[in-house]
Amino acid sequence: MYSNEEQLDRKLPLNGLVLCSTGLSADEQREIEHKCHLMGGKFCEDLVGSVTHIVLDRPTTEKYNYVVLYRPDIVFLNRRFVPQLYEKWISGDDVNVEVDIVTYGEYRMFSGYTISVTNVTDPERSKWINFIQKHGGVYSSGVDVSTSILVAWKPEGPKFEFTQRRKMLSVDSSWLLACKRRGAFVPPSDFSYALTSDERASNFRKVPSKNTKMELQKETSSIPKDHSPAPMIRRSTKSKGGSTWQSLMQEATSAEGESIEVSPFEIVSATEVDSALKTRKESPNSKDAPEELILKGYVLWFKGYDSSKIIRIDPYLSSRGAKVVSTLDGDITPTHVVVEYKERPENLPKITAATTLITDWFLDLAIYHKQVVSPVESRYASYLGYDIYSPEAHIFKDLTISLSCFQGMERVHVQRLIPLLGASVNIGLDSQDDLLVLPSTVYDRVQKETGGSLPGITSTAKIQHARLWGIPIIPDKWILDRKYYKKIGKLVSAAKLRRQKRTAHNNKENDDKPRRTRQRVK
């Protein structure tokens, strides 16, 4: 990766922030520490007073519990945020740390937990279900062995008795109030029905309010400037709107607590779909419907999808004008057959000339852009199996490929395409990488440069260092079309040969240097 001396003269996004971590593996911690330093931040293994942000995997460590009770000034970050921010920064994308933290960096307090409630009625019940889902939890209407926590307003009823028999965790409703008060996941064991009501009440009083952050900032005003905490990043309360498209995109951006690293369509079709998606039945508002009927006239048949997935997919597609049919040979002939993007050519169904073959990526792009994106506009909208599984694709085997300047769905898709070719993706850029891939539009701009770099996107750190290290730079359309594969193979082979010659030359120069001998003192 780049040394500190090689960093381009640009604003360091984490300047002034002090990070700490808890519950991470040694490798994850080293990666975050390294990238934190490269972006101008400081990293401390210990929870010192100057720490402004803490990175965690699960809210179950002693360090986390201490921060919850005694350091409401610290912001919780998910473990993916620093690597993602680094990739965004090194690619030359606009970085606003405050916005990026709120968008995909904050640790969502109920991430990884399946929570059920009992002995509460609407509207209170709906309010807390929405609260759980908004903050990353999965709400379960029933209780089984997969349920993490049961919140019971009264210690009675079938759900509560089930958790008692199975020795599962059931807590008083004050636990949710404590989480809301703190703005973070509070240890549920402090509100277990195994404790007395007085003990639970005492534990609730110990939980600080997130509103005490400003008070703590005043207390730390005497800390030297180079160690003082950065301004607090506050949670956004602005509504994202209520349209069906927006709600679906919110699911996509929050599925793993991060930016769009998963496909919107995948959120609907995933086996572990959120219970809100399982039960959601609303249709677009009448005023939104005309502009959202982008799939009007599409008759879709899904090949290889089980019936339960199709049932969950249907409401989203039908609300946009599409009709889903259950068979290829029924009374209604499908206009489009949908297969998974990674389906092999030999497994494709036989279709007539009147039917078009598309993949789930076609639907990704439609959902993301709110309009149909044709294969002419984006190759990702078409079936790519004939190219990526062709014999010519062997040239990609064991290559390491870096990416730059990709955004949105194309970034998601190209990151998933490269492993299918037999190569691996490097989120950064290393001198030993084999290729740097750019979006075709950016590549065309780079090719038109004369006498140096164009300002802006074509002068990203990755592009400059790829040139410095002799790494071939290619457009993404080349990896999507097998007619370019032979050309790519020649470029990679030539670059490897130059690298070998350079290494041999450097080794020879080192061997030719006179060796200094140690003089003995007589």
Plain-language structure description:
- The protein is α/β, with parallel strands linked by helices.
- The protein folds into four domains: 102 residues, Rossmann fold (3-Layer(aba) Sandwich), CATH 3.40.50; 82 residues, Rossmann fold (3-Layer(aba) Sandwich), CATH 3.40.50.10190; 128 residues, 3-Layer(aba) Sandwich (Rossmann fold); 119 residues, 3-Layer(aba) Sandwich (Rossmann fold).
- It is built from 21 helices and 16 strands.
- The chain has a four-stranded parallel β-sheet with strand order 2-1-3-4. Strands 6-5-7-8 form a four-stranded parallel β-sheet, with helices on both faces. Strands 10-9-11-12 form a four-stranded parallel β-sheet.
- α6 links the parallel β7 and β8.
- α15 packs antiparallel against α17.
- The longest helix has 28 residues.
- It is flat.
How are strands sequenced across the largest beta sheet?
2-1-3-4
Spell out the CATH superfamily of the largest domain: BRCT domain
CATH class membership of the largest domain = Alpha Beta
**CATH-defined topology of the largest domain:** Rossmann fold
Number of DSSP helical runs: 21
- pLDDT < 50 stretches: 1-10, 213-262, 267-291, 450-458, 516-522
Strand content: 5-15%
Mean pLDDT: 78
Broad shape: flat
Assigned CATH architecture of the largest domain: 3-Layer(aba) Sandwich
What class, by secondary structure content? Answer: alpha/beta
Rg (C-alpha, Å): 27 Å
Distance from N terminus to C terminus (CA atoms, Å) equals 47 Å
Give the helix proportion (percent range).
25-40%
Work out the number of β strands. Answer: 16
In total, the number of domains comes to 4
The main β sheet shows up as: 4 strands, parallel
